[in-house]
Automatic annotation (TrEMBL):
Residues 416-454 are annotated as: Disordered. InterPro entries: YibE_F (IPR012507). The chain crosses the membrane at residues 27-47, 158-176, 183-203, 209-227, 239-259, 279-297, 338-360, 380-402. This is YibE/F family protein. Keywords: Membrane, Transmembrane, Transmembrane helix. PANTHER family: MEMBRANE PROTEIN (PTHR41771:SF1), MEMBRANE PROTEIN-RELATED (PTHR41771). The keyword Hydrolase does not apply.
Amino acid sequence: MGHSHSPHSDEPPSPAALAARRRANLLLTWILVPLGLLAVIGMVLLWPSGDRTGITVSDPYATADGVTFETGKVQRVSEENCPSSQALVNAGGTAQQCLVAYTVPNSGGSTIQVEVPPEVAKGGAIEAGDTIRYLNLEAIMAQGGGAPPYVFVDFVRSIPMAALTVLYAGVVIAVARWRGLRALVGLAGAYAVLAGFILPGLVEGKPPLLLGLIGSSVIMFGVLYFAHGFTARTSTALLGTLFGLSITACLAAWATDAAHLVGVDDENAYTLINSSDNISVSGIILCGLIISGLGVLNDVTITQSSAVWEMYELAPGASAKRLFSGAMRVGRDHIASTVYTIAFAYAGAALPVLILVSLYDRPFLDSITSGELAEEVIRTLVGSVGLVVAIPVTTAIAVLVVKAVGIKGIPHGTDATHDDGGTLPAHATPDAGGTPSSPADDAPPTRRSLRNRS
C-alpha cells in the first residue's frame, strides 16, 4: 500500500465546499458501486475450493521417522574435526574439517556439537549468542552405531523480526495516528485477500488475469476507503486507480506472452511445474506483474485527487483547463520520483541476480534480455506505464467531478485569473463563503504551496 501526500488545508472547509463534496460522493457512488459489485461477484465465482488433490510438493522440512527439528542457543563456534567424520576416523581415515557450533538445546540438556554447512561458515554469519534451528539425527545414527550428529538448518529470526514489526507499527501510528492504524489494518486485509483468494486460485489453475485484476480491485476498494475514509477525494483516486490497474493488467498479459516469460530460470518454478498440471508459471508471473504496482499506483492517484480538490477549494472559479494543468505540474514531479522508486525497488530485490549476471562474459543486451533479468525489467516497465497513465486520467476525472458538482456562489467555468496569469482584483472573486478574498487566496496553489500543505 502506497503512502499518501494528500494536501489538506489547516482551516476547516466551508459549508459550500462540504456540500460540493457530498454531491461529488453521490456522483461517484453511481459509478463505483457497480464496479465494486462486479469485483465481489467475480471473487465469488472464482473463489478457490481449497482442494489440493493431485498436488505433490516435496516439503524441504519433512523428516524421516525419528528425525526432528530443534532449536538452541550457540555458546561458541570452532573450526575442528566434523563430528560426523568419527566413523571415518575409526576406520583409519582422516577427519574432515568444518565449523562446529557448540549449542545448548532450548528443550534442555547438555551442550551439543552442531555442524555448520560450508556456505554458512564461509560468510561468518553464525556466532555466539545466535539462536539456531538444527536437525537432530540422533535416533538414526544411534541405530547405525555412529556418532549422533546435529546439522545446522537455519537461524531463528523471530525476535528481530517481531521487534522490527513493532517498531514499524509504532512509528506509523505515532506519525499518522488514527489514519496510520487504519492503513496497517487495511494492509492486513490486503494480505488476507492475497493469501485466501489469489494464491489458492493460482494453485487451482484459475484464470490469472482475472485473479490479479479482481483481487487487486477488491484490495484497492478496501484499502483506500478504510485508510482514507469515504470522501470524494478517495473515490476519485479509486476510480483512477482502477483505470491504471486495468491498463497494467492488459499490458502485463501482452508482455508475458510476447516476451515468453515462463520462469524456466527459477528453481522454484521447476518445483511448481512438477507439483501439479494446473499450475501455470507464466500465469503466476502475469498475476505478479499486476499486483506489484498496487502500492505506488495508490500513492499517485491519492495525491493527484487531493491536489485537484485542494486547488479547486482554494480557487473555485478556476477553469477546468487551469485546474488540470496546475495539478499535472505536481503529477509530473511525482512521475519522476515514483519511476525511480519502482526501478530501484526491483533492482534491490534482484541484486544477487544482477551481480551474478554482471560476472558473466556476455554482451549487455543479451544479459538484460536473459531469462534471469527479463522478468524484473518487464515488471518495472509494465508498472511504470500503468503508473504514468493513471496520473493524467485521475487528474482529469477529479477535474470533471469538481466542476460538475461546483461550489455554490461561483459560476461554472469562471476563471479567477486573467489570461496572462495575473489575478483579478480582490472584489472580483468571492471565496467559498461568498465574501471577498485576496488575490493570493484566489490563485491556484503552486507546487511549493501544495508541498507545504502535505
